Amino acid sequence: KTLPANTPFRLTAAATDANGDPLTYSWEEIDRGPAGSLSLPQVTGETPPLFRSWLPTTSPTRYFPRLNELVDNKLALGERLPTVTRKLRFRCTARDLHSGPAGVVGGITSSDSLNLRVSTAAGPFVVTAPTATGTSWAGNSTQTVTWNVANTTAAPVSCANVNLRLSLDGGLSYPTVLVTGINNNGMASVTVPNVATTTARVMVEAADNYFFAISGANFAITPGPGPTITSFTPAVGPVGTKVTLTGANLSGALEVRLNGTPAPITGTPTATSLTVTVGAGSTSGLITVRTPAGTVSSATPFRVGSPPTITGFTPTRGLVSAEVRLTGTNFLGTTQLTLNNVAVPATNFSVNSDTQLTFAVPDGATTGLLAVTTSFGTTTSTGEFIVPMLPVITSFTPTTGPVSPKTVVLTGPHFTGAPPGGVGGGVAKPVTGGSVTQRTVAVP
């Protein structure tokens, strides 16, 4: 790898111990250049050591120079950044801190040397914002980080991508990843974690190299407002249902639970929308969202279950009080049954099982769809139940007359399909067609 000049870098080793004993690491520069004063100017092509040795540490990573010195902008004696085109050679020694009868006696393993190059064709690679004194970011806000690419995208450095990290302890550690693998173009927008600190710093690190840069001054982050839930849909469903929550300040969600059971987050949350999946073992209850700014619960519960379904009914027609058997699913807990919007009294229907219920056709019912309601929703039949209507004679004309061939016109509802009626105690035979409201018969 080739490093840009005047730019800090870090090296990380990897080591294992068969006994699981703790290890210490010591990264050291092994260049042997010409002897000289620590203050002598660096000369292109010469390879005097620039970084002194330190005591071993439990961290496999060494920063060159050390982070506490970079933060203070004051390098320790015996530490200098490379300022000229040259080579650098390093080696890491891992020590096994095995504890035995004789005390801590550990083995030593040294790595192969790591060879690097430094080029003045690139560098210094530096963060240019945030650097202003008094800078403050709001949690959950979007902010811009800028840096001087300093020709690091071109050969021989050839760094195409960078990662951005955040420190909350004044630049001594960078555990929070803001964004990874973005173009090394000198600018990136990041979403600020919703935390409180006055000692934040940003690191821009090469994604495929060892060099990095940190912002030159601490800045503040103030927590933004906490999350809110205004609604969610659907309001009911079985395990595996995807539920979309709407509200505010949801993008930083760390965890979502349904009545205490984890509900995995699906996709990437936005500030106003969050989708979760009803997890295995979930029960009905409130939805809770936890973010760095706080925790909020929904005002109403999500119900875990499935709405009923109607697969059929028998018979398919009947008069008032006729018994009907309804088949389907999820009938347990039925709270209402209607026929063409006429409610069947609770005393007139019985839930026999989760897949069957029976009812008596209620007074006032007419032909129409059946509907079953439970706490998980309402379903309607695909076909109509037919309630035959008895004919009613509201008038007839003439009201008197001789016997046949005299005819009488009857008026009233529900005549279609009605059998012949009686006239004067005899049986009349229809002599013409009729309609729903009229029938013509002959006097027998």
Q: Which terms would index this structure?
A:
444 residues; mainly beta; 6-stranded mixed sheet; 5-stranded mixed sheet; 1% helix
Molecular structure report:
With 444 residues, this protein is an all-beta fold. The chain has 1 helix and 42 strands. The strands form 12 sheets. Strands 11, 13, 14, 16, 17 and 18 form a 6-stranded mixed beta sheet that branches. Strands 1, 3, 5, 8 and 9 form a 5-stranded mixed beta sheet that branches. Strands 19-21-25-24 form a 4-stranded antiparallel beta sheet, with no helix packed on it. A hairpin with a 5-residue loop joins β16 and β17. It is rod-shaped. The protein starts with a strand and ends with a strand.
Low-confidence stretches: none
Per DSSP, what share of the residues sits in E-state strands of 2 or more residues?
over 45%
Oligomer: single chain
Structural class by SSE content:
mainly beta
Number of helices: 1
Question: What is the strand tally?
Answer: 42
Shape: rod-shaped
Distance between the termini: 116 Å
Secondary structure topology:
Elements: E1 2-4, E2 9-12, E3 23-29, E4 61-64, H1 67-72, E5 86-96, E6 99-100, E7 103-104, E8 108-110, E9 114-119, E10 126-129, E11 136-138, E12 142-148, E13 161-167, E14 176-183, E15 187-191, E16 197-206, E17 212-214, E18 219-222, E19 228-233, E20 236-237, E21 242-248, E22 255-258, E23 261-262, E24 265-266, E25 273-277, E26 287-291, E27 294-297, E28 303-304, E29 309-314, E30 323-329, E31 336-339, E32 342-343, E33 349-353, E34 356-360, E35 368-374, E36 377-385, E37 395-397, E38 407-411, E39 422-423, E40 426-427, E41 429-434, E42 438-442
